[in-house]
Amino acid sequence: MGKLGKMVSTKxxxxxxxxxxxxxxxxxxPAKAFESEVIEFGAVAFREGHDRIATExxxxxxxxxTTVYPLNPGHYGTDTWSIKLPLREIGxxxxxxxxxxxxxxxxxxxxxxxxxxxxxxxxxxxxxxxLLERFAAGAEKKIQTQFAKYGAVLSDNSLxxxxxxxxxxxxxxxxxxxxxxxxxxxxxxxxxxxLCERALAGNAAWYExxxxxxxxxxxxxxxxxxxxxxxxxxxxxxxxxxxxxxxxLPPVHPIGKSHRKGPNxxxxxxxxxxxxxxxxxxxxxxxxxxxPDLGSEKxxxxxxxxxxxxxxxxxxxxALQASPDHPWVKTxxxxxxxxxxxxxxxxxxxxxxxxxxxxxxxxxxxEGIFQEVLRVVNKWVGLGVKIFRVDxxxxxPVAFWERLIAAVNQINPEVIFLAEAFTRPAMMHTLGxxxxxxxxxYFTWRNTKDELAAYLHEVSQDSAxxxxxxxxxxxxxxLTEFLQFGGKPAFKIRATLAAMAxxxxxxxxxxxxxxxxxxxxxxxxxxxxxxEYKARDFAxxxxxxxxxxxxxxLLNKIRKENYALQQLRNLRVHYSDDQSILVFSKHISANxxxxxxxxxxxxxxxxxxxxxxxxxxxxxxxxxxxxxSFKVKDLITGNSYNWGEHNFxxxxxxxxxxxIMRIER
Amino acid sequence: MGKLGKMVSTKxxxxxxxxxxxxxxxxxxPAKAFESEVIEFGAVAFREGHDRIATExxxxxxxxxTTVYPLNPGHYGTDTWSIKLPLREIGxxxxxxxxxxxxxxxxxxxxxxxxxxxxxxxxxxxxxxxLLERFAAGAEKKIQTQFAKYGAVLSDNSLxxxxxxxxxxxxxxxxxxxxxxxxxxxxxxxxxxxLCERALAGNAAWYExxxxxxxxxxxxxxxxxxxxxxxxxxxxxxxxxxxxxxxxLPPVHPIGKSHRKGPNxxxxxxxxxxxxxxxxxxxxxxxxxxxPDLGSEKxxxxxxxxxxxxxxxxxxxxALQASPDHPWVKTxxxxxxxxxxxxxxxxxxxxxxxxxxxxxxxxxxxEGIFQEVLRVVNKWVGLGVKIFRVDxxxxxPVAFWERLIAAVNQINPEVIFLAEAFTRPAMMHTLGxxxxxxxxxYFTWRNTKDELAAYLHEVSQDSAxxxxxxxxxxxxxxLTEFLQFGGKPAFKIRATLAAMAxxxxxxxxxxxxxxxxxxxxxxxxxxxxxxEYKARDFAxxxxxxxxxxxxxxLLNKIRKENYALQQLRNLRVHYSDDQSILVFSKHISANxxxxxxxxxxxxxxxxxxxxxxxxxxxxxxxxxxxxxSFKVKDLITGNSYNWGEHNFxxxxxxxxxxxIMRIER
Lengths: 665, 665
Known about the structure:
The first copy, chain A, is α+β, with helices and mostly antiparallel strands and about 675 residues long. In chain A, the strands form 7 sheets. In chain A, strands 22-21-20-15-14-11-24-23 form an 8-stranded parallel sheet.
């Protein structure tokens, strides 16, 4: 019987530690972070009875340096312990939570209580002496001497116990004990990982344009001269002046002619229609080739360099599908699905047909397809592209992406993949776990205050460890009803929300011109640029005061000047009495900010583009590290106010639907 | 480059499967179940694109029999798949979720859509033939012939494609395909465990009495003749008539004399005061000994046998602490804490002192203490005790309990441990994970409708995999304000709630007599039985209609007659417009009930003992498997009603605060 008892080993340690965070799927995937992101580490840890415990984070940097941080207790009753730290090194961090019997804290607490109650006073001095002997036993010589000195004071009968206790504490015993802990009964959690990626993986403003439109000219006969990478260089100033960090280009490869789509997604293109860039591949080449109209590989490389000079990185589209004219169709027909009649299957969602697109069948030759895609990606990486916006990743096997991203990042850890998956939550989240550094989101369809409050909380708290949201206000595929029918205030509201709420946001060209007319019955712009050239008069609009560009430039400037806005997890929603006025804050404490200064932004937005609203907002001051009364400055108007817990606001969507308040410290 | 790509292995399978349930801490601990409990198994599983998947549960019984169950899809967009099954075998079940490409469902769906749209009709027939060839390839001869026959029909040009499709489906193709699936791209989750314990671990009504009070007699001089195991046998009828399954006895061991507590927890006991049973150990023996006043070991064994004959199991107290007179203090002083002055430390929560109790120091001799406790437990198991109520387990190391319970259950898997831990959630939950079959809860302090609704949901859903709640209405330590000040209706309300909400509930003697007077300023009964004898006139109260015993008997009878009440996880809270009227249901479907009949109980309780209330209640009919209109019978009054989604109720706490409605089928 005794022997059998011995055979049983326990899964629970001497001091139970559970619910360690940040952890994704019990450690199956590393938690996500980016350079300078403030990450909270913590766990639930407790012990039996009344004795105290201490807990620590044992954190090892990618370069192998281990640092131990004491954790802070959470609210009473939760048994949580945590610490927030900014990660400033790229790579895999490993961490572990440790908990141990805090004999010193137990003795100190009991002594305080008993001295006050006049109970066991002399005994507690003796217990202290015994305890300090245990501390000394494992310490180095110099520390031993210190403990012995404190022990002598506790034994000094010429003083009362109260005097002795006060003296050792006044002489710094507590600090010496904390710095040379006993760590008896030490228990450790399992080890977990955090993957810290480069800053641009988590903090960037994106702009999208079609290079063929930039500098495109319409001929008198209605045909067009395509824009190209040389003419598009001129547009970089526009992008740079608005303060964008990433310029994303729809596919730049040759476009198929078979079943080419015409204007407004019509089935038959005219002879001058350029076709959809997503119908990739023609006699001129496939995914590894530049469309002849756009120029040469050299033109492309020059464009990338010109962008980089202006502080802009170029993101390329990775759309793994082929037009019927793609070289792969001849060289590798096994990468597609052959139907019973011998034809190659085109894309369909029965009964809808997309005959200009052949989907790839990843199960037919997984290894061949993987190696070819890896070759293509690495080719563009070699030409200076470090960011890929992946088209419809949710129609390809998730494991393919996991393998591809890992293989690319193994050699080039700076490469970033953005998942364009507008689908169900399980797939979107799993793509994040598979390695996508960024993801499109449901933001475009979250428009009311309550929807936004819930969604901002979800992406900044619940899913932040594995899903890094990039809030796009529009795309060539998405012109929401909110924008179609909300007028200019709607554009201002959405840009403000996206730019302030998450450190990643994006905009497709034309948004700044308030383009709001949809193809009837669809959620897309009419005369969609996907199927035709677009020559927009950005400069003219600016002159006529009919452009949102200045506001966008202001938003991006505010983002760059306020470290709080460069964080994802620090968003907190606050209360307002009005059903359309949303309030959230972004706060970074002085010890976490790169410049050593606390930075706090309060964003107040009237989400209803058709109204002026007045209300009182209620701030959770404990989240903001401010006194009961403080000064705020509106970074839109420059006006200053005195604010506190409860504040009156009036926001007229027709003039200015938002406050972006910085707390002045 | 290609080679490096190959080195990367993926963690995500071909068809991603995640969030498998029931799983505790990623599989670190088995999920809890008890015999006949209906357990839901499930996962999130999905694939890329539009093709269908099928999912299965692969379930292996403790005896090693593996059964495969197809899973049902959850609500659209959730990608959840699940099935509910009753577990009817005690021991460790293992399970795994499997997902695969459902090529047949994909073809069937596409064919339906395309035939209706008049697109690719002949092609879909050919695709069907090709698909059936794939099915046939791996099937046995007889099935191959069947598939060939269906294939011939699909190829039969004398029929239209619509006719062919209709014919193969009419001839049972779908069933043959489902029964002989292809399972291409099959992906499996990890394996997880469910520990199925005996029925009494999860479904029992508990009663607590002090054996020394049962048959105790007061002498004219004020001293007492102790009740004992012989006189207590007479009380078994009372317990049995009320319908209880388990009789829990406070410690039955010799009681220390040093610092013995007197009436109402006074510091100095008189010569005739019996002392607290939790001050265990005297010159007569310790945890392995019966108190001489209670009789011999043989008397105890006879008492256990007599109880068993009446269908009652006896639960013993396991209180790991010692009075200063305990034999361990002399034989094994190293099991306690010796203070700096050489004395043994008594229990204290400074500045409070409990000098009649020496706590055990589990770190001084972990192996010695473990072996001694294992010996003690096994001794009582040998005398017929299969249930232990563990006193204050949260003041002992959790890992000790994990080891002890595993060691005991390794030999005697039928032994049940109930954790009496009234402390913070993390500890209570971890004790459940450590192996405690049952736990005391916060039920006594959840009294309002909203508190109860949230708590019933928590214990039946959120924590049911690792924490099995036993709802006690009172204990010798707990007489809540609700009972002190709620009058007789409060007792009726609380008993009804506890007995109906969870399959485990408990009551300490005196509750049925509405004992409601507390020691001033405390949450305990005055003249607490912990420190004195109590001779109660149960029979007299019954005669004078001043006893709750008949109601308790009715509640326990209703529990025994309704399988829905013998389940934990099937509780659902419904809506009522009144702030004090709580509504919940317990439902078991016909295929899960031992008698093959669906059973549904609707409990409606006025939680306010000081009022009569009228309101409308709103039922979630989808949870009840009923038509829009149905008949219910009140099992308290016998009255019948026609009910539907919305129902008027009137509950007068002073006459009858509850409906217990059975849906008549």
